[in-house]
Amino acid sequence: MPEQQQRTPVTVIGLGSMGSALAAAFLAAGHPTTVWNRSPERAASLAERGATVAATPAAALAASPLIVACLTTFDATRDVLDAAGAELAGRTLVTLNSGAPAEARTTARWAAGHGARFLAGAVLDVPSAVGAPGTLLTYAGERDAFDAHAPALRALGGDSVHLGEEPDLAALYEMAVGAALLPALVGFFQGAAALQARGLTAASMVGFTGRLLDMTKELLPVFADEIDRRDYGAGESSVNLFLAGTAHDAALEQETGVDAGWLAPLHDLVRRAAEAGHGEDSVAALTELLRKPSGTS
Fold this sequence. Notes:
Blueprint: H1 3-6, E1 10-13, H2 17-28, E2 33-36, H3 44-48, E3 52-53, H4 57-62, E4 66-69, H5 74-81, E5 92-96, H6 101-113, E6 117-123, E7 136-141, H7 143-153, E8 159-162, H8 169-178, H9 181-197, H10 206-229, H11 239-256, H12 264-278, H13 286-290
Parallel strand pairs: 1-2, 1-4, 2-3, 4-5, 5-6, 7-8
Antiparallel strand pairs: 6-7
C-alpha cells in the first residue's frame, strides 16, 4: 500500500497564516488533507500542492476523522462548525487558537454534545516553524484522542506534549508562558529607540540582549523553586536592586527622549513589594503581590 494511503486523512479549518502552515505541514508529511476557509482563494496554493478544497464546513468535516480548527477564537470555531455539528460525531476535533481557559472548557462541552472527542492545543511558535522537529505544540483533553492521533499531530511539530485530561490546560499554559513575551519585546524596542537616539543601530544590541535572555533562562528554575516554596530569602537579585534601577530608567528616558511610560506599573509593583517588606528578598517575591488584587493585604 502506498505510504500516503497509510496516513490519517486530516481536515484543516481556517487558512490564515498559521492554518495554512498547518495544512502545508500535513501535506508535506503525506497526509491526505482537506481544507476549508471562508475566503476560498486562500486555499489555492494548498490545492496546487494536493489539498482537497471543501465547499462547505460540513463537507470538510465529513472528509476526515481528524479535524484541526485554526480560527481566531474558540467562539469562532463554534460559530463556523455549529451548523455542521452533526458531522463531528465520532471524529476528533483539535483546536489550535488562542483564548481563555474558560472558553476551552466551553468548547470541550460543545464538542462532547456533538459526539466528538476534543483536544485544545496551542502552537508555541511562529507559522514558519510549523513542521520542524523542535517546534513545540501543547495539547489538553482526552488522552486516548491524543494517543490515537499523535503520529499525525507530530507532523506539525516534533515536540508535541499532552498536558493532561483537563481541556483548558493548553490555554492556561499558553497564557501563563506568553505573559513574558510582550514585556520582553517592548523592553528590546525601548532599548533600540534609546540607542538610535545616540546614532547607534538596534542590530548592535542583539548579541548582548541574547546573552541577557540566556542568563534569564538559567535563572528561571531558581525563581520557580522560590515561588513554589514561597521562600525568597536566599535570592541574589533583590527587590531593592530593581528598585534602585527605577531611577536609572527615569534618567535614561530624560536623556534620550524615549517614552518609557510603559514601565510605570512595573516600577509601582517593585515599590509596593519593598514597602511590603520584601526589599531584601529575591525579586521573585513580586509573585506574592501578583497573587492578590491591588490594595488588598
